């Protein structure tokens, strides 16, 4: 990284309003990055264990991705999403090489929100059914359409305060808190039976798809018990419902395989992706479809689109990123993941306030609760005053490590770039351990 920091030209009054903005929060200005480290305008360095928004999978200065973007920029910077482009075509082919076997074609988008909206649109058109089922405590985006699908109450309540979309229903996630503390096989069976009840209550013929994260992303990195997703797939087949896997966060090595569904060995009908496909160097997202769906839309047509969907710069970044994942990052993520799991698990053993550590690969949630009551210290849905989890995050940031606040804010999310080293994991978790000890 450069030794001299660039001057910030804009005065405070001209600064943009950040997303997820809280007027009482102190928003840093980041100006440089290298590997797992980012630097603010004062020259302070941080270990980025949030990968910004769980997306900078390749680290902050991967030269192979930068070169791929530069080469494309010098050839042709933009081609209409209604036409073919050689880089776009090549990325579509490369994606199918690493995707689940059931995938056949790709429809590109701009971001994860647009990818999920596109998948839902395709599912409703194909099935001629209106309803999409999603889990409470899920996150699928923050547009009007995806906010209605998101099970995070803060998101869909804020966005749909004055206008709401229809055609969605919720079911409970497969977590112990939702099913009387059940775990393992019992939890899988109870959660699947509940989902079948929701399907039958809604009316199977009215349901186009089930949209689900395989490992929860910003809602806490929780995993499903063994056997759960096999039952979900069976229910979809029984009731002629499409299964959409939201891989916006879990895709591209985050959970140790190319995609989260490959850690569960199930085949979705549609798979959405974004974030890690380019390492987030350029916005890009998309939906992959099975043969059956692909043949339908190639025959019937696809009469809508987005100007920047499948942008050539994004596709060039995606091609380079796949090479980097293939030759470097997937192997490193698998190598260091046990270290992260072990260090975070030790927090649960040491601190009574850490009630659950859960995740897969390099995506983890650390959940806090009052040991005397077993309940969170605050309920962020009603008040977030004096939330000790936020204090932990502030302390770790002060000590040079950035973590994410989960949805809801009773937990933090741990998701470093895939290039992270074991020594960086130790440094980051040491800071978290010190912050927990200090705040509790």
Report on this structure.
By secondary structure, the chain is an alpha/beta fold. It has 2 domains: 12-61 and 336-439, Aspartate Aminotransferase, domain 1, CATH 3.90.1150; 63-325, Type I PLP-dependent aspartate aminotransferase-like (Major domain) (Aspartate Aminotransferase, domain 2, 3-Layer(aba) Sandwich), CATH 3.40.640. It is 38% helix and 16% strand. The chain has 12 helices and 15 strands. The strands form 3 sheets. The protein has a 7-stranded mixed β-sheet, sandwiched between helices. Strands 1-2-3-13 form a 4-stranded mixed β-sheet. Strands 11-12-15-14 form a 4-stranded antiparallel β-sheet, covered by helices on one side. Strand 11 and strand 12 (363-368) form a beta hairpin.
Beta-strand residue fraction: 15-25%
Task: Give the end-to-end Cα distance, rounded to a whole number of Å.
Answer: 36 Å
Q: Mean of the pLDDT scores? A: 93
Q: What's the CATH H-level superfamily name of the largest domain?
A: Type I PLP-dependent aspartate aminotransferase-like (Major domain)
Based on CA atoms alone, the radius of gyration comes out at 21 Å
Order of helices and strands: EEEHHHEHEHHEHEHEEEHHEEHEEEH
- The unreliable regions are none
**The CATH class of the largest domain:** Alpha Beta
Identify the CATH architecture of the largest domain: 3-Layer(aba) Sandwich
Kindly report the CATH topology of the largest domain: Aspartate Aminotransferase, domain 2
Strand order of the largest sheet: 4-10-9-8-7-5-6
Helix content: 25-40%
Question: Could you tell me the number of beta strands?
Answer: 15
- Cα shape: globular
Largest sheet: 7 strands, mixed
Q: Total domains, how many?
A: 2
């Amino acid at each position: 990284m450069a030794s001299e920091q660039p001057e910030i030209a804009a005065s405070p009054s001209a600064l943009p309003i950040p997303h997820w903005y809280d007027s009482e929060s102190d928003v840093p200005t980041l100006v440089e990055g290298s590997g797992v480290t980012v630097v603010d305008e004062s020259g302070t360095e941080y270990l980025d264990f949030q990968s910004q928004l769980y997306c900078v999978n390749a680290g902050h200065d991967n030269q192979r991705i930068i070169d791929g973007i530069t080469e494309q920029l010098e050839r042709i910077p933009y081609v209409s999403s209604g036409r073919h482009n050689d880089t776009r075509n090549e990325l579509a082919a490369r994606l199918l090489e690493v995707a689940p076997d059931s995938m056949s074609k790709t429809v590109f988008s701009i971001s994860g929100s647009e990818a999920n909206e596109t998948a839902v649109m395709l599912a409703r058109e194909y099935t001629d059914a209106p309803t999409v089922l999603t889990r409470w405590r899920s996150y699928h985006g923050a547009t009007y359409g995806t906010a209605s699908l998101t099970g995070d109450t803060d998101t869909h309540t804020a966005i749909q305060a004055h206008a709401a979309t229809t055609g969605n229903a919720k079911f409970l996630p497969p977590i112990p808190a939702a099913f009387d503390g059940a775990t393992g096989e019992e939890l899988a069976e109870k959660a699947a039976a509940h989902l079948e009840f929701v399907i039958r209550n809604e009316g199977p013929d009215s349901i186009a798809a089930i949209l689900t994260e395989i490992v929860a992303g910003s809602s806490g990195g929780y995993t499903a018990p063994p056997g759960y997703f096999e039952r979900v797939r069976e229910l979809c087949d029984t009731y002629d419902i499409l299964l959409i896997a939201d891989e916006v966060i879990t895709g591209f090595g985050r959970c140790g395989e190319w995609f989260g569904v490959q850690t569960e060995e199930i085949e979705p009908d549609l798979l959405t992706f974004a974030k890690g496909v380019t390492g987030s160097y350029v916005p890009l997202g998309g939906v992959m479809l099975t043969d059956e769906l692909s043949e339908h839309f190639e025959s019937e047509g696809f009469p809508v689109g987005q100007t920047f969907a499948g942008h050539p710069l994004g596709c060039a970044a995606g091609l380079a990123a796949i090479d980097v994942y293939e030759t470097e990052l997937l192997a490193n993520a698998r190598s260091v993941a046990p270290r992260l799991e072990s260090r975070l698990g030790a927090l649960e053993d040491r601190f009574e306030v850490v009630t659950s550590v859960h995740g897969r690969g390099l995506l983890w949630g650390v959940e806090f609760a009052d040991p005397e009551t077993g309940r969170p210290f605050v309920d962020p849905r009603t008040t977030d005053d004096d939330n000790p989890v936020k204090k932990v995050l502030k302390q770790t940031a002060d000590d040079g490590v950035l973590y994410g606040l989960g949805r809801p804010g009773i937990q933090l999310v741990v998701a470093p770039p895939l290039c992270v080293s074991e020594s960086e994991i130790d440094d980051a978790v040491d800071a978290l351990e010190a912050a927990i000890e200090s705040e509790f």
